[in-house]
Amino acid sequence: MKKNELSYKDLKTLCNPNLFKFDTTDEITDKDLIYGQDRGIKALEFGIKVDSKGYNLYLEGPSGVGKTMYTKKYVTQVASKEKTPNDWCYIYNFHNPNEPVAISLPAGQGQVFKQEMDDFIINIKKDIMATFANEDFDKQKNLMKSKFEEEKNKMLEKLNKQALKSGFQVKTAQNGVYMMPVIDGKALEEDEFDKLDDDTKKTFEDNSSIVQDQIITVINQIKIMEKENDKKIEEWQSNIALITINSHINPLKTKYKKNSKLITFFEAIKKDILKNISLFIKEEVDETKAQTLKQENVKPWLNYRVNLFVDNSNLTGSPVIMDSNYLYHNLFGKLEYENQYGMLKTDFTMLKSGLLHKANGGYIILQASDLLANPICYETLKKALLVKEINIENNMEQRSYMVMISLKPEPIPLDVKVLLLGDSELYHALLSLDPDFKKLFKIKVEFEEDAPRTESNINKLSRFVHSFSTKEGMLPLDKYAMAKIVEYASKLADDKTKLSTRFNEIGEIIAESSTWAKLAKNKVVTAEFIDKTLSERVDRVKKYDAKYMEMIKDNTLLINTTGFEVGMINGLTILTIGDYCFGKPSRITANTFMGKDGIINIEREIDMSGSSHSKGVLILSGYLGEEFAQDMMLSLNASLCFEQLYNGVDGDSASSTELYAILSSLSGIPINQSIAVTGSVNQKGFIQPIGGVNEKIEGFYQTCKSRGLTGDQGVIIPIQNVRNLNLNDDVISSVKDGNFHIYAISTIDEGIEILTGVPAGKKNSEGKFPAGTIKYLAYEKLKKYAKNAQSTK
After folding, report:
1. What is the rounded distance in angstroms from the CA atom of residue 469 to the CA atom of residue 459?
2. For the purposes of burial, counting CB atoms within 10 Å of the CB of 701, is it exposed (0-12), middle (13-18) or buried (19 or more)?
């Protein structure tokens, strides 16, 4: 092995299947939903226990790390041991009908109370009807009416006698009382009255005013007497009805004597029944018939109903609410309407609870991104948490063109713990833009993307696999397949010492492997099916990867994998298309010549360079200055270019590659085109780690393999990225056989020596580079540029 070359054993950390104490995952008894989230779980457990205003939780972490799954499970376990919160009902407000009254009752009692009031309505109507349908009642009522009629007739007879003295006869009819002139006991018709002489007419006219006053006096007396009689009948009816009403109301008052709101409600019902006793006595008119006759079908007993707003009768412990519908009305409740004769009408029974009402006394789990997609929902939630009560606000009124009758129900006290799930970007955005956020979400729970690759976590991963397979009806995995899953989890984590906690992606591999095993009529998932799954997943989405390979093969994209060239090198890039990333080589060239512009980044000049890439290029000037310009001015123009790259470039992972090309151009020493390079560099010449190392290596390996492996080809990577290596079996096999090489370096000097086979050169005590070295030759070229630049002045 050459200096800095890695062994095939360094390219992947295999998992020993014998680590597992089972043959298949079916033998596992314990179940773990997640692992590696100790810090997050500790914060979650503490946050749930804090019972103080504002101690709601924000659970931060990328999608797929199990935060929703674990949070729901843990909170449900905690909630099951807590007290079940009260039911909530809305009842009619007799004093202010537009403001229904909120009633709190022990869990399960709301349903009982609603049924009691439904039964009360049926029974009170039936018993009142039965009471007043009694023959004795009718006799007594008719007797009271007949006494009034007798008194009335006597008064009218007396009035008629008085009127006869003035020459008039008084008669009664359905439409009132009228009088007629009388002569010799005979009432005169109008034509007969007209034939009378003027003196007689005048006498009648003079007497008529006297009789009219007498009639008015008697009529007023009759009306007073009628009112008194009606009042007596009503009082008599009320006294009879009161016995029936009390027989139904008093047991309810006794049962709910500690609830002052209900006592007030029962008293109001009693008064309302007495006030509307006539409506209870008469037969109900069918609704359709009433509409046909255009009559208002008044039913006062509808106001005695109960709206069971929140029913916790089926709960054990406190509620845990999680839903995917984040519409305003679904979260905060609504007031429904029905169309009656072109008007939208409503009443207190049409108040509907939202998720927040149902979670009251417990927990509600919300996805931050979904909640914030509707800003009014987030603002309403904040308002409810700040004032600790829930209102039902009818936003429909403002948008409707129809005449609407609205209600303003009494707010319900709010005691809920909100768990908001989101990523770190959303958390920091809320923290900086919303001053209320920190007041309301005082506990932050962080979920990690990875966990240490310990034996304990490996076993927890196997328990997760068992739990997932059982839940989803998948085939069990044997221990060799399980070892492959562990290796895949490390690859996902991009670190040989860690395991990924992206459980959704691990679950996808399990599901697809199980499907391949079923298609092959196997009863157990083996390592073969894990490998097939991983291969097929790549093959399904590698259209653009394949197109790039075709372009390299037919030399549309110019890439050399053999030979030596001055100022030309193979860099490694990552291309991301949708959810698929792949690595491919890209030719980087450098031309150096005398001048004062320093390093010219062609991509930057045409706005195709990202900020990170531009920074990386500028760092090269610092390195060159320290190495070569301590005793002379740096008179250099160096143009850098990513050849045949038209979509822009970003990141500093090619900065070391660009420096190698510049050193080659300055020294005139050619670079081995069999070797590709990745890695960033600092001003001191130290190599720094980069991302996507596996994809980059595999991308260059595919290119070399398509042209035929020569045994000289390989890749140079930063030494820090060795821990990130998790290469496929094909690459590892070629490295093992000596057909492909991977070098890990820590300085520019190590890299240039591998690329050129020439020593880099290190300054001696006199500050001189050894003759024949890369840096010596580069220095001499720069010295020549400086001298020429000086002479041109």
Report:
1. 15
2. buried
Per residue in 743-771, pLDDT tens? 999 999 999 999 999 999 998 888 899 99
Longest Cα–Cα distance in the chain:
163
**What is the DSSP annotation of 123-168?**
HHHHHHHHHHT-HHHHHHHHHHHHHHHHHHHHHHHHHHHHHHHTTE
- Alpha helices in 391-436, H assignment, sequence order: 396-399, 424-433
CA 644-646-652 angle, to 5 degrees, is 90
Residues recorded for the chain: 793
Q: Say which range, 6-10, 341-345, 356-360, has the weakest mean pLDDT.
A: 341-345
Consecutive H or E run containing 38: helix 38-49
Judge whether residue 293 has pLDDT over 70.
no
**DSSP character at residue 179:** E
Contacts with 638 (C-beta within 8 Å, 6 or more apart), sequence order: 590, 591, 592, 593, 598, 599, 600, 662, 665
CA distances from 242 to 267, 269, 270, 272, 578 (A): 12, 12, 8, 12, 77
DSSP state of 17: G
Claim: this prediction has a pTM higher than 0.85: no
Tell me phi and psi for residue 478, to 5 degrees. -80, 175
The Cα 613–Cα 525 span in angstroms is 45
Give the whole-angstrom CA distance, residue 680 versus residue 687: 6
Which of helix, strand or coil describes residue 637? strand
What is the C-alpha separation between 723 and 740, in angstroms, rounded?
Answer: 19
Query: Cα-Cα-Cα-Cα dihedral of 610, 616, 622, 628, to 10°?
Result: -120
Residue 622: both structure tokens together: 């610092």
Q: How far is CA 407 from CA 201, 312, 330, 627, 728, in A?
A: 66, 25, 18, 81, 67
Task: Tell me the C-alpha to C-alpha distance, in Å, between residue 33 and each of 65, 124, 438.
Answer: 10, 57, 30
